[in-house]
């Protein structure tokens, strides 16, 4: 029969966004705490037939099904709140699409224990997952910028609600992406070092790109042609050229970022999207 984990004896599930990483940390901690602990013993505690099922899950060779989660919760010695959080981690890591991953992460980020341990994860996720947060940050570079939600909301295209602008300012200040100049009292952009775990970062980045692609599509109808540049190129190339194109795109982004960052008189926030993706199967792919 599984017993509750003694306080301070192992990793806390609320410190993780990857359930496989948590399982690995738990296994390593138990090996140090109990000489006889093994994959086989874990399976016995969980009531599993396979003696190495835990290892297969940790290595990413097997997923956890709904029927396995309660067994793992029991063997891990988790209480009700920890078990529910672990189940949400499984749903987040194994979700088949972005919509379900987003729903699972909302539940994760809603956990009080997670927010206390990993506040930056949830806030940075919110920053990248909403298109107008980066826009408002860049808008602060304008000489006439006013940190008034109503003014900010009216500047964005499409417009947002003043309440959304107010919440965005609060988030940007919390993350240190906007700071108030001590001498002038004006808000200005800052360059803090922000990182997030791969699972969270990749989901947030995906949300950001999807929203900006929607803005690009809308611009076809809402932005005059002389204020935008939309073009497409459809080509057939080798794998070698694919890599070369990606490298040139990376260089171009860096050059344009340097050009724009060096502009001391910014007037308008623009978005540049560059996409390079396959539209057909490769030659080695069987029909």
Write structural notes for this entry.
- The chain has 287 residues and is mainly alpha-helical.
- It folds into 2 domains: 13-97, lambda repressor-like DNA-binding domains (434 Repressor (Amino-terminal Domain), Orthogonal Bundle), CATH 1.10.260; 126-261, no CATH class.
- Helices cover 55% and strands 2% of the residues.
- The chain has 13 helices and 2 strands; from the N terminus they run αααααααααααββαα.
- It has helices spanning 19-33, 39-46, 53-58, 69-76, 80-94, 98-109, 112-117, 119-129, 132-139, 149-155, 162-175, 198-222, 239-261; strands at 178-180, 187-189.
- A two-stranded antiparallel sheet has the order 1-2.
- A hairpin with a 6-residue loop joins strand 1 (178-180) and strand 2 (187-189).
- The longest helix is centred in the last third of the chain and has 25 residues, at 198-222.
* Estimated helix fraction: 55-70%
Oligomer: single chain
Query: Could you tell me the mean pLDDT?
Result: 88
Instruction: State the major sheet.
Output: 2 strands, antiparallel
Shape: globular
Beta-strand percentage? under 5%
């Amino acid at each position: 029969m599984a017993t509750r984990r003694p306080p301070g004896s192992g990793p806390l599930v609320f410190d993780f966004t990857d359930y496989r990483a948590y399982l690995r940390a738990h296994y390593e901690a138990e090996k140090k705490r109990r000489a006889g602990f093994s994959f086989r013993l874990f399976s016995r505690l969980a009531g599993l037939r396979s003696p190495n099922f835990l290892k297969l899950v940790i290595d990413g060779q097997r997923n956890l099904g709904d029927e396995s989660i309660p067994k793992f919760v029991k063997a891990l010695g988790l209480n009700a709140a920890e078990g529910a959080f672990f189940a949400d981690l499984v749903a987040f890591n194994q979700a088949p699409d972005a919509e379900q991953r987003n729903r699972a992460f909302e539940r994760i980020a809603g956990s009080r224990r997670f927010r206390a341990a990993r506040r930056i994860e949830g806030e940075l996720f919110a920053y990248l997952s909403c298109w107008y947060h980066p826009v408002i940050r860049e808008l602060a570079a304008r000489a006439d910028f006013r940190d008034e939600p109503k003014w900010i909301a009216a500047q964005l295209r499409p417009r947002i609600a003043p309440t959304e602008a107010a919440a965005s300012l609060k988030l940007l200040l919390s993350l240190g992406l906007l700071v108030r100049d001590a001498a002038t009292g004006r808000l200005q952009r800052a360059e803090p070092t922000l990182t997030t775990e791969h699972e969270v970062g990749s989901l947030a980045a995906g949300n950001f790109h999807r929203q900006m692609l929607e803005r690009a599509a809308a611009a076809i109808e809402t932005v005059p042609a002389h204020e935008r540049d939309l073009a497409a190129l459809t080509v057939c190339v080798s794998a070698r050229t694919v890599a070369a194109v990606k490298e040139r795109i990376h260089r171009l982004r860096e050059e344009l970022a340097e050009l724009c960052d060096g502009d001391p008189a910014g007037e308008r926030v623009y978005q540049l999207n560059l996409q390079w993706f396959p539209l057909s199967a490769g030659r080695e792919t069987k029909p």
